[in-house]
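ok so I'm stuck.
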Amino acid sequence: MCSGADVPQEQKAGWASFIKSLAQMTGDLSSMTAPPFILSPTSLTEFPAYWCEHPNLFAEISEGKTEQDRMERVLRWFIDTLSAQYTTRNEKMGSEKKPLNPVLGELFYGIWPDLNGRGETRLIVEQVSHHPPITAYYIENAKAGVKLQGHSGQKTSFTGTAINVKQSGHAVLTVQPKNGQKEEKYLITLPKLRIEGIIWGSPYIELTDTNAIQSSTGLTAQIDYKGKGYFSGKSHSFKASIANASGKSLQTYEGQWTGKSHIGGSKGPIFLDTTVPKEEVTVRDVSQQTEWESRKLWVNVAKGIRTGNYDEAGKDKTRIENEQRQRRKDETTNNTTWEHLHFTHVDSDPDYQFLSALLHDKLTPAHEDAYVFKPETMDVVGRSA
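replied:
not stuck anymore, here's the structure
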């Protein structure tokens, strides 16, 4: 097995040891400690921002004139999120990196300002579980009448050449159409991924299998993902279709979720071009953040990773992780439980239950838990202790 052609010379021994550990690991990999050079300076709590790096597409969903028009806008917005979520998040770092594993209670806040009358879009994220890691998020553009609530976790395993990631959780998009038609909800299931290129030390992501978007109107969008050599001979390829409640296909779409896609076939009109510049979330300066906010919490770790001072990064990362372990011990000693700030856990999500029944997908469970946003905490920033 290769020790990593793209691994820095001084890190090759550590990388070889990491690959060996991967090969011997059974079960979930989330607790593994990766070599410092493959760590990202970004915590997983920042990842929900990728849902909205084209806030215009998010805001414009409610402007659709018909149920099918709005479903197509939802599909376009969703496909547009994939490139940011899975391939461009570490452009500055050269290749895919392992994000920092958030501490329980970690917070992330951001906005996309109101430009050209689209309305302000707000983002609230909270790490609601550490073992297993689960991140809950809420995104809302009140003026546009569009909001997204969801949670995600990852279960990872190594297959010899790649890491397979099964994402747990779901998102529910709520849309109040501008034309006065009744409110719609859309269940979004999450795609699976494969992290390839591990043994060369140059990881990259491919999406695999399928995921779906189910509307309360009865319309369903199904997205099928393939890597290089399938649909078009290009990596990051997808095919999607929108069907009515009886299963009749109304329209199809295909292309690359990292580039251009077309309506009705590869020669059809352009559906989406994801290469247009993205709009990153606006976040308060670290000096103004509270202790539990991601960038403040990980500031020294991130600085060490960005400057190549991995000793500094490792030292502060260990301090944060030890503090987390001590909190859990104190809770056990005092017989107390951690209180979520922005979300309430429910064992079964009624929106999920209703929409998954419409989906008629035998692989989708009938029930799934959820983390429901507490609207009274919309303007709460940070926790007091």
